[in-house]
Amino acid sequence: MMSNIVRQSFFTVNASMFLLSILNCSAFAMELTDNLQLHGFLTQGAFYTTDNNYNGKSDDKVSFDQTEVGANIFWQLNDRIDFSAQALYRRAGKVENSDLRTDYAMMSVNLLSNDTSHSGIRLGRIKNPIGLYNETRDVAFTTPSILLPQSVYLERSRSLLLSSDGGQFFGSYQLGNGWLTFKMNYGKAHNDNDEIKKVMFGNLAQGDLEADDKMFSGQVKYSLDNDKYILALSYVDVTLDYKPTSTDILASGTAKFSPYMLSAQYNGEKWGFTSEYYYSKNEFENFGFIFPDSYPVTENWYLQGTYRFTPKWQGIVRYDVNILDKDDRNGKNFESFGLPAHLGFTKDWMFGLRWDITPTVMLRGEYHYIDGTSWLSSADNPDRQETERYWDLFALQLSFRF
Amino acid sequence: MNITSRLFLNLSNNCKINYLLIGCLFLFAHNSQAVSLIVNDSVVSPPTSKQNIRNIFTLQKTSWPGGARIYIFVLPDDNPVHQKFSKTLTGIFPHQYRRIWDRYTFSGTGIAPTVVDSEAEMLDKISQTKNSIGYIEGEINRPDIKIIHLDFTQEAIDDE
């Protein structure tokens, strides 16, 4: 068993190194014509924790169970119509097992475009505009750290909130020295909600929790001075229906999530500051006597500062708070269900360093001092009684892009 | 005055002239080192204000008046000419551009500027691609490429 894991890890690392070495032969000329571009990335992570598991078996050992490989195409058919698609291979501990899927695939129609505004519609599988990072959350080069602030970009709800199959209205208007942008998505969410089910019901639930096809996500953003200052408000509305099995002790209830996210960012020459605040009203109804109706409010936020020492070296510090039920900040309710109280919250101090070796190769490392286990995955930590409240996490990541 | 001293005088005079010459050369070199915006000959109304240039390079404005797509060419992020262009012509840093472009590239919502490896390739691309825009250091004289003279350039350098 152990040797299998070791062998698998070695294989992954070797394969990644091999790919990196063949890909890293200077910058590619990937523009096949002026109207067609190909881009992609390859990311390999390594994780070590003093307790608990993150992205595979990382407790007191090194786990290489995080690989992300993506390739995309963008094609301008004519002056108005674009097609774009991205394939994404992803492995993340036991949460996501070597999954290859269409990350997005859409047609964009540009309806209006002039000096001070543009707008249009998109049809297909479209990334959801939530906060500053959701649309490109799996692309290491675009994220501030190896672990996205888990308070607001929970791994557990990643697959539910990632994209929707439907349509999007988008528009941008020049307003003073800035641009006001809006995006509104409507469509069907993905249905890989085991992590959400486990944190709601533990191992009680036998049936499936499925998102309906009426998910809404939207964002209004004002960016001043070419993204030097960004202020954004995002909103999501999604309902999950529970489909019990014939022997299920749970009834066919519904779980409704409607989070708001407020994002603020400053991007200077050397300093950068980011803060996002997430507030979600949740409704759990009609699951039967064993799970009475409840309406917990989730409240999460983080504060993050970055400093660019040189164009290639950047440091980052973040404090990140996740509270599953704002009326139960210490997790007393979890304790009354026989679960550890620290499942109710997580406070995470993070310190990291990023080295952009070339414009296409990046290496970064970070250290987390963590109090709480609320965002730990159940897949990697099946027995919550074995989790520890205080733990440290070390992570290293190498990423290549073209 | 003997020959030696006359020679010395001549030399020192020459030196003065040389210094002046060198000084002029430096001035000239400094001017020719400025980064200029260039467009393909087909572009009828190129941008002349800083905000318009920013709107194009941050992908907010994606077509020319009349509706034709804008094709953008840039040098690599760590190229000194790109850094000069970013800071002096637009006041946006290369890492800020990269973040903006990546957000489009990896969400499928836009096409990022095409990166060329050298200024020679930049000139080739701009001359061959209709409706294209890029930049170059120094002066060029080619019938198929328009240089855009910007009033605010000197002002931007003075701001530095």
What labels describe this entry?
heterodimer, A: 402 residues, mainly beta, Porin, 16-stranded antiparallel beta barrel, B: 160 residues, alpha/beta, 5-stranded mixed beta sheet, 6 helices, 49% helix, disordered N terminus
What is the topological layout?
The complex is a heterodimer of chains A (402) and B (160).
Chain A: H1 2-23, E1 31-33, E2 36-49, E3 62-76, E4 81-92, E5 96-113, E6 117-127, H2 158-161, E7 163-175, E8 178-188, H3 194-201, E9 208-211, E10 215-224, E11 229-243, E12 254-267, E13 271-285, E14 297-310, E15 313-323, H4 332-336, E16 345-358, E17 361-372, E18 390-401
Antiparallel strand pairs in A: 1-2, 2-3, 2-18, 3-4, 4-5, 5-6, 6-7, 7-8, 8-10, 9-11, 10-11, 11-12, 12-13, 13-14, 14-15, 15-16, 16-17, 17-18
Chain B: H1 3-32, E1 35-40, H2 50-57, E2 71-74, H3 80-90, H4 94-105, E3 114-115, H5 119-128, E4 132-137, E5 145-148, H6 152-159
Parallel strand pairs in B: 2-3, 2-4
Antiparallel strand pairs in B: 1-4, 1-5
Overview of this structure, please?
The complex is a heterodimer of chains A (402) and B (160). Chain A is mainly β and 402 residues long. Chain A contains 4 helices and 18 strands. Chain A has one domain: Porin. Chain A has a 16-stranded antiparallel barrel. In chain A, strand 3 and strand 4 form a beta hairpin. By secondary structure, chain B is an alpha/beta fold. Chain B has 2 domains: 32 residues; 125 residues, 3-Layer(aba) Sandwich (D-Maltodextrin-Binding Protein, domain 2). Chain B is 49% helix and 14% strand. Chain B contains 6 helices and 5 strands. Chain B has a 5-stranded mixed β-sheet. The radius of gyration of chain B is 21 Å and the shape is globular. Chains A and B meet through strand 2, strand 3, strand 4, strand 5 and strand 6 of A and helix 2, helix 4 and strand 3 of B.
